[in-house]
Structure formats: C-alpha cells, structure tokens
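Our working data are protein records whose layout never changes between entries. Getting from the letters to the tokens is the skill we practise here. To make this concrete, we reproduce a full record directly below:
***
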Amino acid sequence: MIRGIRGKRSMNRLAAISIFSLAIGVTTSHIAAGAAAQGGSGAITKSGKDGALIDLTGYWVSIVNEDWRWRMITPAKGDYQGVPLNKEGKRVADSWDPEKDEREGNQCRAYGAGNILRIPERMHVTWSDVNTLKMETDAGMQTRLFHFDGSKWDGGTPQWQGDSVAGWRKQLQSGLRTQSTGTGGALRVITTHMRPGYLRKNGVPYSGNAVLTEYFNRFDKDGVAYLIVTSIVDDPQYLNERFIISGQFKREPDASKWNPTPCRPLWPRRAEEEQGADE
C-alpha cells in the first residue's frame, strides 16, 4: 500500500503551492485564530448533506510530498523535531515503547484522530445519514464520524477517533478580517474527547484533553480532484503552542486499490521505503 502513495516528482510543483493561499487564503497565524472562532458571518446554518458546499465523498489517496521521514518510516525514538512539545511532552515521547503499546492493546495510538490523516493511506468518504459524514481509512481500519447536528459525546469511554462536530464554512474569521475559503467553501471539524494518542508514530503524544480542529478544502486541477486538510492541535498538557500541519489527498476513480490493514505500532523497514519520495 505504501508504495502506491509515495509522492511523485510531478507533484512537487503542486506541493509548492501554499495550502493556505490556495485553499483557505490566510496565513498560519490567521488559521490558528480562525480555529477559535465558533461563530461569525462565515457560519453556514444549513448543515449536513443538503447544505454541502463541496463534495468530499469518494476514495482518496495520500500524497506524501512533505515530512516523508516522519510519515513513511517509523522515526527514531526522541525525534520530535518540529513538534512544539513542552517538558512533559518530551518526557512521554522519550519513554515510547512500541512493544509495550502492543502488549497493552494500544497499537492504534498513532491512528487516532490527531494523526490518522497523516498516515500513508487511502480513505473512503460517504454519507452515513443526512447529518453524518463517515470517513473510513484502510490504514488501521479506522472510522471517523463527522456530526452536523451536534456532539454525540455521552460520557463513556473515549475512542481513538473522538467526538467530531462538523459544519460548512463559507468564510473563516481570522480575527483581523474575513477570509474567503475559495471556491465553494470548506468543512470545519472540531474533535474532542479523544483517547490519548500519538502525533507521530514514534510516541510523540497528545492527551485526552487535546482539541483537534480541521479544515477540509477541495480544489480541482486538470480534471483531478485534490483534498487539502489543515489540522490544528491544541493540547496544553503536552504542547507549548498549537501544532499545525497539513495533508494532501488525490481522488481515485474507484475502490480497486483499497487495502485494509490493521494498526501497526511500527512501519516495516523495506529497502524501497528508504529511497527518496521524488524518485
């Protein structure tokens, strides 16, 4: 599966296009500020399937054109470069033990909502009902439910994918001015009550109190649909500041390459995975 989703040289120019200017049209700081804005003139009151501003359904495959060394192979223990961990976060990351995770049934820690869309994978998006968008991943065989009719948290045991509340956004409030999301609009998803997991496969942690805010934007180029997902993780327990990352996906015509595989605490290290993604 991994070989089929490695970045290609032809995608480099696409990767060079700023995800913020093309899909959201704001800087990183503006997006972070926008994540805190729950209302604003950009809110779409009509929710769910009937109010959809963009079509996210279908099969999508990861484009791994950035952060290859943290995504395609298991990073070394203690390699948390780029993640704003505080002292406690570094302590937890330095104590990572994948064998212990597997013994304790926690092999899916890197497949929770905080990191699942950074895993090399394919995903399948469908409408479960008019107010629930369902996202399935073949990597780890995870299912996320985006609820347009409010939180479904009932106080039970937190799950890997947490409780996600979704809404369509015509515009984002940056705190300074109103920014257009581009053609159509964007989907904003705020996820809470997550089971503690990993921001990277090598034990970089996020806590059960973390809040994940995501913006899903679609654009089409030369007849091909692309999806850009911007993720913002707020977690004062382990992070000094917000952790902002992005992922890109390309739409596929059908399920012919769909390949469900269980959660694995480590990626296998194969020779072909050691080679550059631009090959």
